[in-house]
Amino acid sequence: MSSTQGTTNVAKFTLQKLNQNNYALWSFEFQLAAEAADVWKVISGRSMRPVSRPAVVDESNVIIQTEVTATQAQVDEWERKEALARSQIVKCVDDEMKVKIFTKKTSTEMWECLQSYHQGKTRREKYRKKQELHKMNYNDFKNMASFLDAVMMKRNELEQMGSKMEEDDVIILILDKLPAEYSHAASYIRNQHGDEAKDLDEVIQY
Q: Taking residues 2-20, what's their average pLDDT?
């Protein structure tokens, strides 16, 4: 089977193309599909192009590296997988992402380029969302329910980006932002210990 035949008849690995906003979900779906198609090891760099190598001996004629013979069939199979991997990456990204990878020669270089770009972007986005969360002011919301909904929404957004906030940290943030009229309730919650301490759901319902 030629490389062309092996790549043109394969369905796209992902239904949604990679864009500026969906890397986490896209990369998860793409990797699962690549594993199922037996090309993920090529993309991740764990499977290198087969190369024949002579045996290596030291000064005492002790073999320190055995001879490796790469057959043409092995090379052809690896090149088929590499061609499939490159083809799928290009098919599964939008035009803006294609611009970032069109100079890359291998599927590994393409993947690492996309990963580096989006992980850097994700770090900036995490920082921005954390700033937004900590700058929230209770008086900017019409009532307690809308304030708590906004806090929990930001927390969920951060968790979806891989930045988990511990419940105690969320509770402290909520209590610190409550106006003076809630100072007694906030003090009561802060001073609870052990089994008496309320979890996040209980604080929200309190």
A: 73
Separation of alpha carbons 30 and 97, rounded Å: 15
Q: What is the pTM of this model?
A: 0.60
Rounded to a whole number, what is the largest CA-CA distance in the chain?
85
Q: Mean pLDDT lowest for which of 28-32, 33-37, 50-54, 64-68?
A: 64-68
> Residues 56-65: pLDDT tens digits?
878 888 888 7
Instruction: Check residue 59 and report its DSSP letter.
Output: T
Q: Which residue has the tokens 């290596």?
A: 56
Which residue's entry shows tokens 């030629």? 2
Higher-confidence residue: 116 or 88? 88
Give burial (CB, 10 Å; 0-12/13-18/19+) of 151: buried
Rounded-to-integer distance, Cα 173 and Cα 139, Å: 15
Place of tokens 């770009």: 117
The secondary structure of 113-157 as a DSSP string is: HHHHHHHHHHHHHHHHHHHHHHH--GGGSSSHHHHHHHHHHHHHH
